[in-house]
Amino acid sequence: MIDVLAFGAHPDDIELGAGGTLVKQVRNGSKVGMVDLTQGEMATRGSVSVRREEAKKAADIIGAEFRINLKMDDAFISMDKTSILSIVRVIRKYKPKIVLCNAIEDRHPDHAIAAKLVSKACFTSGLSKVETVDDSVKQLPFRPLAVYHYIQDKWIDPDFVMDISLEFTDKIKAVKAFKSQFYNPSNKEPETPISSKEFLDSLTAKAVLFGRSINTPYGEGFTVERPIGVNNLFNIT
Question: What beta strand segments (E) does 12-155 contain?
Answer without folding.
Answer: 32-38, 66-72, 98-101, 133-134, 137-138, 146-150
